[in-house]
Amino acid sequence: MVQTDFGGPEAVSLRDVPEPVCGPRDVLVKVVYCGLNRLDLLQRKGPALVPGFRLPHVPGMDFAGTVVATGSAVGSVVPGDRVVADPTQGCGSCSRCAVGDRAYCSSPRILGGNAPGALAEYVLASAESIVQVPESLPLAAAVTLPTAAATAWHAVHSVGSLAAGETLVVHAGASAVSLAAIALAKRAGASVVAFAGSEAKRDAARTAGADLVLPNGDPDAAKTVSVFTGGAGADLVLDHVGTHTWRTSLDCLGIRGRLLLMGNTSGDEVSFSLQEVFHRGLKLLGTGGYTSADFVAATSACFADGLHLPTALRLPLEDLADAWDVLAARETIGKVVIEP
């Protein structure tokens, strides 16, 4: 599927393009499944959000598939291996890439972001970004994980330092990132409180492992969290909503609690009392981009435990417009998946 303009579904059409050719450190993968992300939809509508974006463009960040060819310098995988890849490829040569911090590469290369993505029969990825999928896990399950699991791992573990026995509060509890965060927090031995907007979404959060699930906008949320934690309050709050949930996030935190800021879908600017933050010893943490180590740790942990996200819908490549409509409605639970 090739994007040639900005706008509605008509901006992207099914086309024949040349098959990618491997460089020395590249891996060519036959795409079995491609998981949609909101970035795909936003960049179709325009303007472009990822630096270096150019038209024509093939979208699609997350994929699972089988290796069909490798470059001359690749020894980590062979044709036939079942794999996923970190869509954040980096340039492979700058100081940030050298330490695995590809999200802050000076010339970022992102599959489906500013480089040809996986809404296609074949996708080309760097060998360093590839993780093998165990035979015990279907590729249909593996494709739900890459971006969501790595983002959640980075927030919960690398930045949030969530420990066993602590309590995590998660907003938008049925979103892909939140479902992954709930599962990873439970895996770490923490308790989880989740907020969600509908009963179906609250059920999804419960299924992922949330111990207490509350409706969005619950006026007694902070009091309920306090009771749930024996008066201590939450140790960690993960907020990728922004303005609408800001006050609730602060109110749910206990003394020396950590607030992880990782999104602003409801607005970008908030106000708060400096005295409240320093007097209670709160930590306000911007999560930033996940690292290559986060990606490997997250996918490996999920693969080992058989964890994956629910699939909301699976459609063939030619029905991408319908899939995007479903994604835009924000009523889905889990991932929308395309089969090229």
Largest pleated sheet: 7 strands, mixed
Estimate the global geometry from the Cα principal axes: globular
Distance, first to last CA = 9 Å
Order of helices and strands: EEEHEEHEEHHEHEHEHEHEHEHEHE
Number of strand segments: 15
Strand content: 15-25%
Round the Cα radius of gyration to an integer and report it.
20 Å
What layout of secondary structure does this protein have?
Layout: E1 2-3, E2 12-13, E3 26-35, H1 38-45, E4 62-70, E5 82-85, H2 95-98, E6 122-126, E7 130-132, H3 139-142, H4 146-159, E8 167-170, H5 176-187, E9 191-196, H6 199-208, E10 212-215, H7 221-228, E11 234-239, H8 246-252, E12 253-261, H9 274-280, E13 283-286, H10 292-305, E14 311-316, H11 320-328, E15 335-339
Parallel strand pairs: 8-9, 8-11, 9-10, 11-12, 12-13, 14-15
Antiparallel strand pairs: 1-2, 3-4, 3-6, 3-15, 4-5, 5-7
Description:
- With 340 residues, this protein is of the alpha/beta class.
- Helices cover 29% and strands 23% of the residues.
- The strands form three sheets. Strands 3, 4, 5, 6, 7, 14 and 15 form a seven-stranded mixed β-sheet that branches. The protein has a six-stranded parallel β-sheet with strand order 10-9-8-11-12-13, sandwiched between helices.
- The termini are close together.
